[in-house]
């Protein structure tokens, strides 16, 4: 399918690996030029080189912490006017509700709510002026069904979801759409880290912990970055202009809900 976005420019955050990289590669395959960001320069540059060589698109790599004001300023300065924004940041650490302090919540909000909002505030005016734009926020299935040990993520990402719900309806008339992708468990470093925590707590090895969690997913497997990226690219396409303010679960059926 021709997504109709060849030659457009996208900013993809946390794109050196995992779900962010999956989105960046799917957009590059559709002919989109990229500005990609992550904190680690070595992995980021390697990803940029691979995407250039594989898909033949322009790729600008900016190593910076997107959750800081200085990091955002450097990324936005390098990006300039973009047609597509994919926000993404690592989730806060797991824990117990009684252990989190105000500082823990502020850090979670900065990373998973206030940073994507700041990026949208910076880039939406240009999209509106050009009468076309796409924003996809990578959030979490936890905004549909909270995960007890991920309470910091539950809170911050749900706040972002509320912001998007209102804002998406205000910008849609200008040809700009904002939607959220809600991943369940995908085969990424984050999944490996969480499986490691389970393995340690239960005194089992990581393959056992992984098998145990896969059994809770109706698809009986973890998702892949490639299929997640394909969903992202579709939401960024010309074909998705009538999809506004939605939350698309990619979780293998793990969230047990009718709607």
Question: What attributes does this structure have?
Answer:
seven-stranded parallel β-sheet; 7 strands; 259 residues; alpha/beta
Overall description:
The chain has helices at residues 18-29, 41-55, 69-79, 102-130, 151-171, 189-202, 206-214, 225-235; strands spanning 9-12, 33-38, 59-63, 84-87, 133-138, 176-183, 247-250. It is of the alpha/beta class and 259 residues long. The chain has a 7-stranded parallel beta sheet, with helices on both faces. Helix 5 links the parallel strand 5 and strand 6 (176-183). The longest helix is centred in the middle third of the chain and has 29 residues, at 102-130. The model has no long low-confidence stretch (mean pLDDT 96).
Write the layout of secondary structure elements.
Elements: E1 9-12, H1 18-29, E2 33-38, H2 41-55, E3 59-63, H3 69-79, E4 84-87, H4 102-130, E5 133-138, H5 151-171, E6 176-183, H6 189-202, H7 206-214, H8 225-235, E7 247-250
Distance from first to last alpha carbon: 28 Å
Helix content: 40-55%
Average pLDDT confidence is: 96
Spatially, the strands of the biggest sheet line up as 3-2-1-4-5-6-7
Main beta-sheet strand count, sense and barrel state: 7 strands, parallel
Oligomer: single chain
Radius of gyration: 18 Å
Question: Can you write the helix and strand succession as a string?
Answer: EHEHEHEHEHEHHHE
Helix count from the secondary structure assignment: 8
Classification by helices and strands: alpha/beta
Give a count of the beta strands, DSSP E runs of length 2 or more: 7
């Amino acid at each position: 399918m021709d997504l109709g976005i060849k030659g457009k420019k996208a900013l993809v955050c946390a794109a050196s690996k995992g779900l962010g990289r999956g989105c960046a590669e799917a957009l590059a395959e559709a002919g989109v030029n990229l500005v990609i960001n992550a904190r680690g320069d070595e992995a980021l540059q390697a990803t940029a080189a691979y995407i250039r060589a594989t898909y033949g698109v322009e790729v600008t790599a900016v190593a910076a912490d997107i959750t800081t004001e200085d990091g955002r300023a450097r990324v936005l300065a390098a990006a300039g006017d973009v047609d597509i924004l994919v926000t993404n940041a690592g989730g806060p650490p797991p824990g117990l509700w009684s252990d989190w302090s105000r500082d823990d919540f502020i850090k979670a909000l900065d990373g998973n709510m206030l940073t994507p909002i700041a990026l949208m505030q910076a880039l939406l005016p240009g999209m509106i002026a050009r009468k076309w734009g796409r924003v996809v926020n990578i959030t979490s299935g936890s905004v549909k069904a909270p995960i007890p040990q991920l309470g910091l993520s539950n809170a911050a990402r749900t706040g972002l979801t509320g912001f998007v719900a209102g804002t998406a309806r205000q910008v849609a008339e200008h040809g700009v759409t904002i939607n959220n992708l809600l991943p369940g468990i995908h085969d990424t470093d984050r999944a490996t880290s969480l499986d490691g925590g389970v393995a340690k707590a239960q005194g089992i090895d990581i393959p056992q912990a992984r098998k145990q969690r896969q059994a809770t997913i109706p698809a009986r497997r973890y998702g892949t970055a490639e299929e997640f990226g394909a969903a992202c690219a579709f939401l960024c396409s010309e074909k998705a202009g009538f999809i506004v303010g939605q939350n698309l679960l990619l979780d293998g059926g793990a969230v047990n809900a009718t709607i």
